[in-house]
Amino acid sequence: MNGLALLLGATVIFIAAYIVYGSWLAKKWGVDPSRPTPAYTQKDGIDYLPTKPAVLLGHHFSSIAGAGPIVGPISAAVFGWIPVSLWIIVGSIFFGGVHDYGSMVASIRHKGQSIGQIIESNVGRRAKLLFAIFAWVTLLVVVAAFANIVASTFVANPGAGTASLLFIVLAVGFGYAVYRSGIPLLIGTIFGIIGMAVSFWLGHIFPLALSKEVWLLILLAYVFVASIAPVWILLQPRDYLNSFLLYAMMIAAFLGIIFYQPTMEIAGFVGFDLGGGQWLFPVLFVTVACGAISGFHSLVSSGTSSKQLDNERNAKLIGYGSMLIEGLLAICAIISVAYVAADKLPVLLKQGGPVNAFAQGTATFMTSLGLDFSLSKEFVALTISAFALTTLDTATRLGRFIFQEMIAPTENNKEVKPNSVREALSNRYVATLITIAAAWYMASGSYLTIWPIFGTANQMLAALALLAITAWLKKEGRDTYMITIPMYFMFAVTFTSLGQLIYSNLGKNWLIVGVSALLTVLSLALAVEAFRVFSEDKKETSQAEGLQSQSQE
User: Fold this and answer.
1) How far apart are CA 76 and CA 485, in angstroms?
2) Where does the protein end up (predicted)?
3) Which helix (H) or strand (E) holds 375?
4) In angstroms, rounded to a whole number, what is the distance separating the alpha carbons of residues 459 and 382?
5) pLDDT band at residue 293, thresholds of 50, 70 and 90?
């Protein structure tokens, strides 16, 4: 099959879904453009800050994308390109898009609070604690997985690593210029893009050839600073400028596929059972996470983006639209690997992982536009690693938020049972350091070791986020079936996968066994707690209806 047909077909389907299904969701959830958002009602200039849609789209998309829609589809290509492509398209529209959009709307209606706090409001404090522990452990795995992937990419492409470091300096200058010096966004953007081009050129001319261990330390030092700094000085500007990188890469890849017209060289469908415990269900649905549905997205939607949304009408663009764009990126990834897989994929994976394989395929397509192959490959590697780095700093910041909530829980903005130990541990510097140290321990191995548990934990987090949205919609008296159908499916996928991980790693990798067992217990306890509340609410509703009926008689 021609890869162009797949790309164009997916694009048309995603546009139709955004217009039709996205608008239907907004209507069912009561999205109201006249309602003030938490960015205004809770404005503090640090976390809550009204942000222009173009800037917030850049931040949100940068945060959720990362290397996930590249690594997942490429790793799952062993099943064939057809099941991977179908899951990306169906998942993005009816699973991931609903999950991301719903998390954002639910957070907006709870003063910009996180999914954990939404669970507390609609299920109970014990459920919130269970979710917080689960989410924090999952974020540790996210940071470990993406730090490992970025470090490996920088070793294989030193120029990309150098340019990424220069981007950090550029982002700080951009943030100060736009938010503190009053330079118009358009002027700042023009100079920012020029600065990015200069940084890319300097990285190509003066690449830093460092070991993976050194890159890991540099990355973790960066995310420590990014986690504690105000959003306007580093997080927002870096994400906004990086979004232009991805837009440029996706346009170049799109045009490259149009002119190159690659064929799908790998098999369309290999089989349901590949041996060694590799069954299409559940492996496909936890391996392709960020390209179809990702629990991490709910933490971004409710943790940072909902606090910066300037109008409820833009929730559809930021929440639902970003997920569909990410799905399109995942389709590009499967086309690139399907073309180069015939003879080069094993070598490319060994040299730099899935990002290197994607860069090889996409750079090949870009040569049809008259671009140099080596520069194109370095540019693609830089773009994906820059977004993975964005996922890193956002995940670390969210991990810090959640750790602080666990250690020093609050009620009515006052700490519950305050004491000196809690105050010390919940300090933002200490909370960030603990989060990074735990993630660094997990990141010491290969991404191949971390990714299975990352995918499973991430998808279970998605199921739990859908559970939280369901609880909110039930209290609002709104329909929930657009949420509950994907929720039940994701619970089935992840419980099966956790069981497989525990069984297959017994006596081999006790870290994965321990983390999998902990996540299983936490998610089961939280699910039981939530369904108990649902049952009580249903019973109370039935009793109320019965009393009303009797009074009418």
Assistant:
1) 24
2) Cell membrane
3) helix 373-407
4) 27
5) very high
For helices 373-407 and 345-366, give the axis angle rounded to 10 degrees: 110
CB 388 within 8 A of CB 149: yes
Give the count of beta carbons closer than 10 Å to the beta carbon of residue 53: 15
Amino acid at 413: N
pLDDT of the residue at 409: 61
CB 264 within 8 A of CB 6: yes
Sorted by where each starts, the structural domains of the chain and their CATH numbers stand as 3-99+112-398+427-542 (1.20.1740.10)
Alpha helices, DSSP H, located in 408-509: 420-425, 428-442, 447-476, 481-505
Euclidean distance between CA atoms 383 and 243, whole angstroms: 9
Asked whether the beta carbons of 137 and 461 are under 8 A apart, the reply is no
The owner of tokens 């608008």 is: 23
- Tokens 């690593």 found at: 161
Verify cis geometry, omega within 30 degrees of 0, for the bond prior to 237.
no
Q: What is the pTM of this model?
A: 0.84
- 91-108: b or e for each residue (b if 16 or more CB lie within 10 Å)? bbbbbbbbbbbbbbbbbb
Closest alpha carbon to 238 in 314, 155, 291, 179:
179
Segment 357-379, tens digit of pLDDT: 788 889 999 999 999 998 898 88
Sign of CA dihedral 319, 320, 321, 323: positive
Q: In angstroms, rounded to a whole number, what is the distance separating the alpha carbons of residues 267 and 239?
A: 37
